[in-house]
Design a protein that fits this description.
Chorismate lyase; six-stranded antiparallel β-sheet; two-stranded antiparallel sheet; elongated; alpha+beta; 26% helix; Arc Repressor Mutant, subunit A
Length: 243
């Protein structure tokens, strides 16, 4: 009988230590040097185990601070399938602050095609989600002037923009389409720096109204270091078939 690879043994040992209360949720793990000595493994083996623990949502890494046991939370187990802002269900660390601003832009072929307009200016709304570690994520939203009027958005008021993007937009939406990919955009092209060093995950969301019109396009940029989301799936019990 073959034994499990060493990285799996380390993975299981850390899980056991959490279950037995030797490692506490929210607590920082010992340094990699201490863990290597304790488990008597190579740096590669240890980092493989830690990577798997992060993949499985057991650990959270904070750049420059180390690895932490993920805290248990009381949030709903709903995933991003519900029609609301996906950002709070896609971060492994809490948001404590926001930076909000907007830009008025000249007409573009892209937005004319996106919103079925002709030579019409548009707005971009920005929210940078932050905590003490820095910028956790950026939401770049594209909307048209008539949406600003319809939702009575005060563009000079950060709270009004936040209320629209996080709540009002979804309360009046009929559906949205969300695409998740790895962004090819370089971090250095953003005006503000993100936490971590990993690639950026891009969630592109088109939000539609009752008449099928596109109300907004949101682009959420989230460093992979702090990104984790869930999509709950269920069996199809009824299916319409074309006859």
């Amino acid at each position: 009988m073959h034994r499990s690879p060493k990285y799996v043994q380390v993975y299981n040992q850390i899980l056991k230590m959490i279950k037995q209360g030797q490692l506490i949720p929210g607590e920082k793990l010992p340094s990699e040097e201490v863990l290597r000595t304790e488990f008597d493994v190579s740096r590669v083996t240890l980092r493989t185990a830690l990577s798997l623990l992060k993949e499985d949502g057991v650990l959270v890494s904070v750049h420059g601070k180390g690895h932490f046991i993920k805290r248990e939370n009381n949030f709903s187990e709903r995933g991003i399938e519900s029609l609301d802002s996906p950002i709070f269900k896609s971060l492994t660390t809490p948001v404590t602050d926001r930076e909000v601003y907007y830009h008025e832009n000249l007409p573009s072929a892209f937005t004319d095609q996106l919103f079925h307009r002709s030579d019409e200016p548009y707005y971009t709304l920005n929210i940078w989600y932050q905590n003490d570690d820095g910028n956790l994520a950026n939401n770049l939203a594209i909307i048209m002037p008539d949406t600003v009027t319809a939702f009575d958005i005060d563009l000079e008021d950060s709270a009004s923009i936040t209320q629209f993007l996080e709540k009002d937009l979804y309360q009046h939406a009929a559906s949205s389409q969300l695409t998740i990919t790895v962004s090819e955009r370089d971090r250095s092209t953003f005006r503000r720096a993100f936490v971590g060093r990993g690639p950026l995950v891009l969630m592109t969301e088109d939000v539609f109204g009752l008449n099928g019109q596109r109300l907004a396009q949101n682009k959420y940029y989230v460093p992979s270091d702090v990104f984790r989301t869930t999509l709950n799936r269920y069996p199809i019990k009824f299916q319409n078939r074309e006859r």
